[in-house]
């Protein structure tokens, strides 16, 4: 069991301004702004990676995070806002947060979409007061200009995550340890 020292708490709090300073452009302009960004993100995803339309068509719902900003210098964090769509309609708004520690430096931004492939997975997500991405999620990370593998679009994983539109100077993106919380924009 680890104990937090005063220095550790101070350093953790010191990382928060790094993430806050990297505004993700969504701000607090309400649901219309988030929905507009979600629409643009989905349009980019489906045009750049056409096989993802198969995931959309098979899914019970999609959580779309148009822009997540992640920063780290020893300690790090990430933040973004998005919307849960069921049947093509926004039903809730969510924020995503992540904290990390270790050998890391840099800042990056990316978009991601979680495809809930079963009604149970979607129901569990919606009922949770704060849902953490974990081992039951399969990643489908499209490569530049390519398409997703056939096994991804036919997968029976309850949740499939597609991470794309990466920009910045930080290597790698994983959604493990990311927490999603329902918000009122």
UniProtKB/TrEMBL annotation:
Coiled coil: none annotated. The keyword Signal applies. Residues 98-180 form the Ysc84 actin-binding domain. Residues 1-20 form the signal peptide. Keywords: Signal. The keyword Signal applies. This is YSC84-related protein.
């Amino acid at each position: 069991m680890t104990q937090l020292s005063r220095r550790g708490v101070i350093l953790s709090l010191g990382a928060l301004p790094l993430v806050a300073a990297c505004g993700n452009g969504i701000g607090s302009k309400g649901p219309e702004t988030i929905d507009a960004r979600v629409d643009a993100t989905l349009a980019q995803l489906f045009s750049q990676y056409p096989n993802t339309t198969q995931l959309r068509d098979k899914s019970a719902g999609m959580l779309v995070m148009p822009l997540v900003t992640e920063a780290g210098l020893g300690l790090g964090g990430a933040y973004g806002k998005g919307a849960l769509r069921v049947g093509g309609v926004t039903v809730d708004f969510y924020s995503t947060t992540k904290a990390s520690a270790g050998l890391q430096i840099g800042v990056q931004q990316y978009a991601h979409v979680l495809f809930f492939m079963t009604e149970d997975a979607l129901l569990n997500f919606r009922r949770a007061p704060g849902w953490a991405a974990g081992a039951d999620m399969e990643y489908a990370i499209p490569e530049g200009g390519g398409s997703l593998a056939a096994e991804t679009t036919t997968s029976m994983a309850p949740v499939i995550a597609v991470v794309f539109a990466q920009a910045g100077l930080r290597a790698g993106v994983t959604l493990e340890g990311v927490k999603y919380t329902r918000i009122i924009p």
